[in-house]
Specification:
heterodimer, A: about 80 residues, mainly alpha, 3 helices, about 0% strand, elongated, B: about 450 residues, alpha/beta, FAD/NAD(P)-binding domain, Alpha-Beta Plaits, 3 domains, 7-stranded mixed beta sheet, globular
Chain lengths: ~80, ~450
């Protein structure tokens, strides 16, 4: 019986995307939270549109917040100069 | 994309309308030009505008042919997503150090199919839409962008690898790094353009704090048919605004914020936007609060008169504060200058601040040219040689030299190109193509 060689994740060479992620310090908690929030808003919008077409103000009211105003930092409009 | 060569006749810094025009004017005369743009597409501010005053022509319809011409010209090499780090005099010319930022996309292989951006799960505020719309972490800058190549915003990437998997040409290159390149040029034209006065400098106007106080570039995008909403809506709730105010001199002629000069274009762009709002929204009430209207250019006064005839209210009044009330509506406190200084409070759905122009780029640390006290490039021979800077061989055009409108910027671009061409002939830098090819 030959010796069993390990082929774990740590042994394989890193892919370029992993090298870049490490070089840039990984994904920040703020970005992770922002992506999660975007997913939540998308789900809300899809749900609101499931019953048929809606105007933007109707969507804004149904989805609690209007999506496009949410791209800025919290409490700050996205279109700040 | 071709590599940056070792030698050009001229370097143009900035790929907006001024830089493109200067490059074209030189290229048409047979001079080899390197046009460096810091963003991922050429076109600058103008390609994002809705219409131009006083003719109300479509802005991108004027700008995009210039963009295409610049990028396809046999004597012009366009280098986007790059910055000029240093320009040092050497002999009759200059040594320019340029940093090519990593796109993480092989420009030669990218076919602009957008599959990567459709697959990317991250939404990021879109700079082109002034943050009102969204782009993805990997994106093509906008529909009219040149080049139509994707760029990865690594700062907002979650490294999921979906773009890499879906790319049909396998052009995503995660191991790209910034690269510094040196090239020699005979003349330099600075055409770095403008930023608008930061809203934070006028906290009493609520800019950057109140959802329905917009900057003028955001209003340009909102009015554009390819804008973030496709029609005019207010940012807080997506409703159609019915009472809109413009606050003039919101970032100009104001020593308290360090901008004592008149920005020259705010009156006209506000009148243009106000008139277009009257066209776009039936029955909308648009009011301009101003200190005085400066409509100085060809056809501008007639445009001002037309705006008033078409129902825009122009009131001589100085706005003191803007406050938010219920429903994100805004109350403007204004001193009515034509009514003995009576103070009045008026309610509006949406307020646009007519912010002024400040330079987008500073020469300090890059090229040894002086700046004037207002921060724009100094032009010591402004009356007779308006494109001359304090360093021989370095010329300036457009808003980099001071606030001005598009026609004036284009005229200056031509002047700077002629001055640069004169220098290239005098110094003997410009060589016949065979000699230039050997030098490269």
């Amino acid at each position: 019986m030959g010796e069993k060689t390990t082929t774990g994740k740590a042994d394989r060479p890193k892919r370029p995307i992993e090298i870049l992620r490490d070089r840039l310090g990984g994904v920040s908690k703020e970005l992770q939270a922002s992506v999660k929030e975007q997913g939540r808003i998308r789900k809300l919008l899809r749900g609101a549109l499931a019953g048929g077409p809606r105007t933007v103000p109707e969507l804004g009211a149904e989805c609690d917040r209007w999506r496009f105003s949410r791209h800025g930092q919290p409490g700050r409009p996205a279109h700040a100069g | 994309m071709p590599e940056i060569r070792k030698r050009y006749d001229a370097l143009v810094i900035g790929g907006g309308i001024t830089g493109m025009q200067a490059a074209l004017d030189l290229g048409e005369q047979g001079y080899d030009v390197l046009l460096v743009e810091k963003y991922a597409s050429i076109g600058g501010i103008m390609v994002g505008l809705n219409k131009v005053f006083p003719t109300l022509d479509c802005s991108s319809c004027i700008c995009t042919p210039r963009m295409a011409e610049s990028s396809h010209h046999s004597h012009i090499q366009v280098q986007t997503w790059a910055e000029v780090l240093k320009v040092d005099p050497e002999g009759d010319g200059f040594v320019a150090t340029i940093e090519k930022k990593p796109r993480y996309v092989d420009e030669d292989m990218c076919i602009g199919c957008s599959k990567c951006e459709l697959e990317c799960p991250v939404d990021v505020p879109h700079e082109f839409d002034q943050g009102l719309g969204a782009r993805r972490a990997i994106y093509i800058p906008h529909g009219n962008a040149i080049p139509q190549k994707a760029v990865l915003d690594a700062e907002h990437c979650i490294f999921c690898g979906k773009c890499e998997k879906v790319c049909p040409t396998e052009c995503i290159v995660f191991d790209q790094v910034a690269e510094q390149v040196e090239t020699r040029v005979g003349a330099v034209i600075i055409a770095t353009g403008l930023d608008i006065t930061p809203m934070a400098r006028k906290p009493e106007y609520g800019g950057g704090r109140l959802l329905n106080v917009m900057n003028p570039l955001a209003m340009e995008r909102v009015q554009s048919s390819n804008g973030p909403y496709g029609r005019v809506l207010r940012p807080s709730d997506g409703k159609i605004p019915r009472k809109i105010a413009y606050v003039q001199c919101a970032g100009s002629r104001d020593r308290s914020i360090g901008v004592p000069y008149c920005s020259r274009v705010c009156c006209m762009y506000s009148l243009k936007q106000a008139l277009l709002l009257r066209h776009y929204i039936h029955g909308v009430e648009v009011t301009l609060y101003h200190m005085d209207i400066r409509a100085f250019g060809k056809g501008y006064e007639q445009f001002y008169q037309r705006t008033m005839k078409e129902g825009v209210r122009v009131i001589k009044g100085k706005v003191a504060t803007i406050k938010e009330v219920d429903n994100n509506d805004l109350v403007v406190r204004v001193e009515m200058l034509d009514e003995g200084g009576r103070v009045e409070e008026r309610r509006h759905d949406l307020v646009v601040l007519a912010q002024g122009l400040v330079p987008a780029w500073h020469a300090h640390g890059v090229v040894a040219c002086d700046e004037a006290s207002d921060g724009f490039m100094a032009t010591p021979e402004g009356k007779i040689n308006p494109s001359f800077t304090t360093l021989s061989g370095v010329f300036v055009a457009g808003v980099a030299a001071g606030p001005k409108d598009i026609p004036d910027a284009i005229v200056e671009a031509g002047e700077a190109a002629m001055a640069a061409a004169g220098r290239l002939q005098r110094t003997g830098w410009h060589k016949v193509p065979a000699v230039a090819a050997a030098a490269n």
